Amino acid sequence: MVEGRLRKFYEESVFLEQVFVMDGETKVAKVIEAASKDVGAPIEFAGFVRLELGEGVERTAEED
Predict the structure, then answer these.
(1) Residue 31 CA: distances (Å) to CA of 6, 15, 18
(2) What pLDDT is attached to residue 48?
């Protein structure tokens, strides 16, 4: 029971354990591993930026 809860926590909280949003099945770590093989060089995850819909979009007076 504890293992299941920990697994669920890691799948929701740890980026590399999350499901890749483009296919809904593969974990992010596996996608990075496959991309690394395709490129022929190691790929290292260094960080990410989280944006919400519309965040950072500046409107000009002409658009209104």
Answers:
(1) 22, 12, 11
(2) 82
Amino acid, res. 59: R
Nearest CA to 28 out of 40, 20, 37 is that of 20
Q: Residues 56, 50: contact at Cβ < 8 Å?
A: no
Reported as a single tens digit per residue, the pLDDT across 19-44 is 998 998 999 999 999 999 999 999 99
14, amino acid identity: V
Query: How remote is the C-alpha of 27 from its chain's centroid?
Result: 9
| 25 in Cβ contact with 14 (< 8 Å) | no
